[in-house]
Design goal:
There is one protein chain. With 272 residues, the protein is of the alpha+beta class. The chain folds into 2 domains: 12-167, no CATH class; 175-268, no CATH class. Helices cover 43% and strands 11% of the residues. The chain has helices at 60-70, 90-99, 118-136, 166-169, 173-189, 196-217, 222-234, 243-252, 258-268, and strands at residues 17-20, 35-36, 51-54, 82-85, 102-104, 110-112, 144-149, 152-156. The strands form 2 sheets. It has a 6-stranded antiparallel beta sheet with strand order 2-3-1-4-7-8, covered by helices on one side. The protein has a two-stranded antiparallel sheet with strand order 5-6. A hairpin with a 2-residue loop joins β7 (144-149) and β8. α3 (118-136) packs antiparallel against α5 (173-189) and α7 (222-234) packs parallel to α9 (258-268). The radius of gyration is 20 Å and the shape is globular. The chain starts with 16 loop residues before the first strand and ends with a helix. This is DUF4123 domain-containing protein. Residues 17-121 form the DUF4123 domain. Pfam families: DUF4123.
């Protein structure tokens, strides 16, 4: 898969805004003007949602973390990892970012979209494409993001010529929710890969396997899904057609963890 990120990342200091994950920084300085990205309906859960902060208001120590990370001097990753530019008015910006945090599937069940988490945003980048990201967040062509992931800064550039387009429009709500629920497993299975092009390629292959496991066989639990994907990618893409696995898959319906345990046993004892 082609590397969709800018060859040379744009420094966080060149952006106008930061999104702060308050689960990582619950005590951001009181004097900093923070805009809560949460709808009134979800106010009781405010502590789970991020803040929008102007770069002009960010305390120096966080700038220092960014600089150290950029120079490869940081022992730990920076606490603030997500920066962006937009030409939208602040009130519109807040409204769009709040709306993007929550999505309902076709059955009316609601899901939180943690797009501001770099490990999540990385996956949305290849799945939706630049135009799809802009549509998800209701952003204009000036929108660009720099974020910290797998030990490096990455920039999804603003492409002035690219309008809201085919990438996001081809993704149904059901597929978007399915992908969102798969991101944790995708990250688990690609965690050791540091090369961005390789990570993009692996992520796409893992999702292909996970989507098959969910749509065709109804697997839901992470251990089952990751075991299925491992067999699919590392052994044989048609493994599930074998009689032994057909039996296991049928018995796995409504039995979380069963596929993982049985397939592991089968492999260990040379049954595949």
């Amino acid at each position: 898969m082609k590397n969709i990120f800018q060859m040379e990342y744009k420094a966080p200091s060149e952006h106008g805004y930061a999104i702060v994950d308050r689960l990582l920084i619950p005590d951001l300085d009181e004097q900093v003007e923070k805009i809560e990205l949460i709808s009134p309906v979800l106010e009781p859960q405010a502590h789970l949602y991020p803040w929008l902060v102007s770069m002009h208001d960010l305390p120096y120590r966080y700038w220092e973390e960014m600089i150290k990370a950029s120079e490869g001097l940081a022992g730990e990753p920076p606490l603030i990892k997500f920066f962006f530019n937009s030409s939208q008015p602040l009130d519109q910006l807040k409204r769009n970012l709040v709306n993007a945090l929550y999505v309902k599937d076709t059955d009316g069940a609601g899901y939180i979209v943690r797009y501001y988490d770099p490990s999540v945003f990385f996956q949305y980048c290849w799945f939706l494409g630049s135009a799809g990201i802009k549509k998800l967040l209701s952003m204009d062509d000036a929108f660009e993001v720099t974020f910290y992931h797998v030990g490096q800064w990455l920039t999804l550039p603003a492409r002035q010529h690219e309008k809201y387009g085919s990438a996001h429009s081809k993704v149904s709500v059901a597929d978007f929710v399915l992908f969102s629920k798969s991101i944790k497993s995708i990250n688990n299975m690609t965690a050791r890969t540091q090369s961005i092009p390789e990570k993009l390629q692996q992520s796409a292959h893992v999702y292909q396997a996970l989507a098959l496991a969910i749509k065709e066989f109804g697997l839901q639990q992470a251990s089952d899904l990751e075991s299925f994907a491992t067999l699919y990618l590392e052994h044989n893409k048609d493994f599930y057609k074998e009689e032994a696995f057909q039996r296991i898959l049928k018995q796995s319906v409504g039995n979380p963890g069963y596929f993982h345990l049985e397939s592991t046993y089968l492999l260990k004892h040379g049954g595949f």
